[in-house]
Design brief:
About 75% of the residues lie in helices and about 0% in strands. It is mainly alpha-helical and about 180 residues long. The chain has one domain (about 35-180). α3 packs across α5.
Length: about 180
Amino acid sequence: MNDSLRGNDQKLPKHVADSISAMARLHSDHQPKRGTLQRWVENTTAMLGRPTFTIVLSGAVSAWIGGNLVLQALGRQAPDPPPFALMSCLVSLAALYMSGLILATQRREVHSTTRREQLILELSIRTEQKVTKLIELVEKLRQDHPDIADRIDADAQEMTSSVDLHDVLDAINTSHSVTEE
């Protein structure tokens, strides 16, 4: 399963290789759900976001303007004379399509981010429960062990109680509303 990640020289510890494998599975489970159209939209948006596209677009606009001005200077009929109304319409139409592509890509990314945040929250809650249980067990072991002097550890006792998530959320909301005022 994760032996390919560890390699022959065993550079990665098993728990790290396991974590990487789990992340790769999550990623690969999510990727096939993209349809052909969604992949095309994402690839097109990625292409539009590259500096090369901006350079090519600037070159095309300059050539359009320059070509029309040269034709006009030679006394010939320019297909789109100044103020370049046709070019303005084409650029506006392209901007409309680009906006749609960007929104479609962002919508999918928001969905993916929401799923990741939910997973992180669930793992954090489970980790908090496990740590609370471990602290409780260590405290009981300390109290039950005859060679360890019994003492009261207020911090450890407080940490053995589970956290009410609604109380945490209320406290976060309260602290944020205080700092925003």
